[in-house]
Design a protein that fits this description.
By secondary structure, the chain is mainly beta. It is built from 1 helix and 9 strands, in the order βββββββββα.
Length: 159
């Protein structure tokens, strides 16, 4: 089973109607966000509209939530205990999870979204590994090249 533990950066968000037809991109087409999963079963997520400016009549989406999670390799279930949207408090947020082209893809269930038509929509949030694993890989590569060997030497005695 692929691990989701770490920090993931939102790189793309897609929307589709209930029939699978592409819809305008969520978050004004400029998504920003992070989701973090700990090895002890806690998570937190933030997604939002990353545009520098938006027209006054446009809704700027923003959402945060946190809680405990379980992951079986395909389905992520978060029991929300902290959130920006009171309607999420105490709920279980379910996401289908897959990995495509090096990205983790989270797919919430079909539902209506704020600032969108009343029709239900399906979203896909695509994120790249941003945290610990990337840094670990970099450090290992540098170590193999000898760039970090100086850090492993015993310091010279003070004079």
């Amino acid at each position: 089973m692929t691990s989701i533990v770490g920090t993931w950066r939102l790189v793309r968000a897609e929307a589709f109607d209930a029939n699978g037809k592409p819809q305008p991109a969520p978050y004004g087409g400029a998504p920003i966000g992070r989701v973090m999963f700990t090895s002890s079963g806690r998570m937190m997520a933030m997604t939002g509209d990353g545009r520098q400016e938006a027209h006054a009549d446009q809704v700027r989406e923003y959402n945060t939530y946190a809680g405990t999670y379980t992951f079986d390799g395909k389905r992520l279930i978060t029991r929300v205990d902290s959130c920006s949207n009171p309607a999420y408090m105490g709920t279980e947020q379910v996401r289908e999870v897959s990995h495509e082209g090096g990205l983790m893809v989270l797919r919430p269930p079909v539902r209506a979204y704020v600032g969108r038509s009343a029709r239900a929509a399906r979203r896909a949030l695509l994120g790249e590994d941003f945290g610990y694993r990337r840094m670990t890989t970099l450090v290992r590569a540098l170590w193999r090249r000898g760039a970090c060997k100086a850090a492993n030497r015993t310091p010279a005695p003070a004079r």
